[in-house]
Amino acid sequence: MKAHLKHLIVFGSRATGEAPVDSDLDVVVLVDEKTDEIERRLENIAYQVMWDHDFNPIISLKVLAESRFYDALNKGYSFYRHIETQGVAV
User: Fold this and answer.
1) What integer pLDDT is reported at residue 1 of this predicted model?
2) Domain of 69?
3) Domain CATH for 57
C-alpha cells in the first residue's frame, strides 16, 4: 500500500478551521493508480479509524489517481482547485 500512496490531503471546513462540531472530515488520497483493491483497503482503514473514535468525525474519503487529479486541476475544475488551494497535506 505504501508504494501506491502519493498524497493525503485534508480539505473542507476542518482544514480551514471553520468546522462546526458535527462536521465531517474531508480527505483525498492520491495514489499511483486507483484500483478497486486499493480503494477498498483505504475505505476499510477509514472505517476502522471512525470505529475507534466513535464515528466522530465521519470521514468522507475520496480516492483518486494522482494523474486524474492533476488533469482535472489543469482543466480548472473548481472542486480540484479548492483542494489544491484550501487543502492541508498530511
Assistant:
1) 59
2) 5-89
3) 3.30.460
Q: What is the 3-state secondary structure (H, E, C) of 12-49?
A: CHHHHCCCCCCCCEEEEEEECCCCHHHHHHHHHHHHHH
Q: Is 25 exposed, middle or buried (0-12, 13-18, 19+ CB in 10 A)?
A: buried
Q: Cβ(4)–Cβ(45) under 8 Å?
A: no
Q: How many domains does the chain have?
A: 1
- pLDDT at residue 2 above 70? no
Q: Is the dihedral of CA 39, 3, 55, 90 positive or negative?
A: negative
Residue-wise pLDDT tens digits, 20-78? 888 999 999 999 999 999 999 999 999 999 999 999 999 999 999 999 999 999 999 99
Could you tell me which residues come within 8 angstroms of residue 15 by beta carbon, excluding any fewer than 6 positions away?
A: 26, 86, 87, 88
